[in-house]
Amino acid sequence: MKNDKPLVGVSRCLLGDAVRYDGRSKSNTIVLEKLSQLFEFIPVCPEIEAGLSVPRPPVQLTGSIKNPKLIGRDNPAIDVTNIMQRYCNTRPAELDHLSGFIFKSRSPSCGLNSTPVFINKVCVTETSRGLFAKSLCEKHPDLVVIEDTELEDKNLLEKFIQLISVSHQGNSD
């Protein structure tokens, strides 16, 4: 049976799931109240799916803009780069059925164009991509993507909805 709603991946914390490093969520009203009526969500939390715990020490991108590591924010001895890279080597290929993805902004795994990168404890950019977002977008360059903060812009929100609809029609033909 064909699914009548487009399948859209979404960072799990935006759905109200308490999966963030601090054991909290970042539920998003637009996702929960508007977009949930239009799309069937596929919840994704790279950190949990990669095997990290809740709560867990906060991490940040560091070392290089092009090839950052995922290092403990408060404890630089924590390095989960390899764990996340292994996850990113497999999970994006499993998401080829999606029409789109809604990412959590500023996340070291899910930030789309808003993730800070630190070099020598100094923020050198705030427009990088989280490791999972980068991997998913490289694997599926035509995937319709947006960050939670962009949903607040009515024009960007409407464009996202329209592009998902077009993508879904193309996937169901």
Please provide a written account of the structure.
The protein has 173 residues and is α/β, with parallel strands linked by helices. It has one domain (7-57, 80-112, 129-172). It is 31% helix and 22% strand. The chain has helices at 29-38, 46-50, 81-90, 131-139, 154-172, and strands at 7-11, 40-44, 59-62, 69-72, 100-103, 115-119, 122-128, 144-147. The strands form two sheets. A four-stranded parallel beta sheet has the order 2-1-5-8, with helices on one face. Strands 4-3-6-7 form a four-stranded mixed beta sheet, with no helix packed on it. Helix 1 (29-38) links the parallel strand 1 and strand 2 (40-44). The model has no long low-confidence stretch (mean pLDDT 95).
Task: Flag low-confidence runs.
Answer: none
Strand arrangement across the biggest beta sheet: 2-1-5-8
Oligomer: single chain
SS strand fraction: 15-25%
Q: Tell me roughly what share of residues is in helical segments.
A: 25-40%
What number of domains? 1
Task: Summarize the SSE layout with pairings.
Blueprint: E1 7-11, H1 29-38, E2 40-44, H2 46-50, E3 59-62, E4 69-72, H3 81-90, E5 100-103, E6 115-119, E7 122-128, H4 131-139, E8 144-147, H5 154-172
Helix pairs in contact: 3-4
Summarize the structure.
By secondary structure, the protein is of the alpha/beta class. The chain is about 30% helix and about 20% strand.
Q: What distinguishing features does this structure have?
A:
173 residues, alpha/beta, four-stranded parallel sheet, four-stranded mixed sheet, 31% helix
